[in-house]
Amino acid sequence: MDKRHWPRGYRCNGHIMLNSEKMSKSTGNFRTLRQAIEEFSADATRFCLADAGDSLDDANFVFETAKAAILRLTKEISWMEEVLAAEASLRVGPSSTYADRDFANEINLAMKLTEQHYQNYMFREALKTGFYDLQAARNEYRFSCGTGGLNCDLVWRFMDVQTVKFCVE
């Protein structure tokens, strides 16, 4: 393998837990990565693995986390489809309101923190800042804009950051 494909680092933690029980073939409490992807999807499995733990403690793959990720991601896809279908109703022009500037700042902050977490192999923290915190900022922005409407450029930037920037890490 070319050096450019070598890992830049690795992460070590204790045993792998499955729903808070030690994973073991002998007890039947066991899943391969392929089985998890087939059962929950690749994206939900990534969510669950990122949420499993960042420290030397035992990593815990929790089925409910994977199921919740499926619901969150499905809900997010629906929201994005709704926004794209109603794009003509979004406000155009520069970010002119306090809510616009605040949301743009939250996006920038999430990007910076998430990149730092990825560089430090803190995947749970990267998931928190790159998805959950960004979702909360988007929801606050939607609430803050009220009848004034969302800024089209900011919404597109948010969608780009959520779907492209953090997915390639």
Automatic annotation (TrEMBL):
<dbReference type="GO" id="GO:0005524">
    <property type="term" value="F:ATP binding"/>
</dbReference>
<keyword id="KW-0547">Nucleotide-binding</keyword>
<dbReference type="GO" id="GO:0004823">
    <property type="term" value="F:leucine-tRNA ligase activity"/>
</dbReference>
<feature type="domain" description="Methionyl/Leucyl tRNA synthetase">
    <location>
        <begin position="11"/>
        <end position="67"/>
    </location>
</feature>
<dbReference type="GO" id="GO:0006429">
    <property type="term" value="P:leucyl-tRNA aminoacylation"/>
</dbReference>
<comment type="similarity">
    <text>Belongs to the class-I aminoacyl-tRNA synthetase family.</text>
</comment>
<keyword id="KW-0436">Ligase</keyword>
<dbReference type="InterPro" id="IPR015413">
    <property type="entry name" value="Methionyl/Leucyl_tRNA_Synth"/>
</dbReference>
<dbReference type="InterPro" id="IPR014729">
    <property type="entry name" value="Rossmann-like_a/b/a_fold"/>
</dbReference>
<keyword id="KW-0067">ATP-binding</keyword>
<dbReference type="Pfam" id="PF09334">
    <property type="entry name" value="tRNA-synt_1g"/>
</dbReference>
<keyword id="KW-0030">Aminoacyl-tRNA synthetase</keyword>
<protein>
    <recommendedName>
        <fullName>Methionyl/Leucyl tRNA synthetase domain-containing protein</fullName>
    </recommendedName>
</protein>
<keyword id="KW-0648">Protein biosynthesis</keyword>
<dbReference type="InterPro" id="IPR004493">
    <property type="entry name" value="Leu-tRNA-synth_Ia_arc/euk"/>
</dbReference>
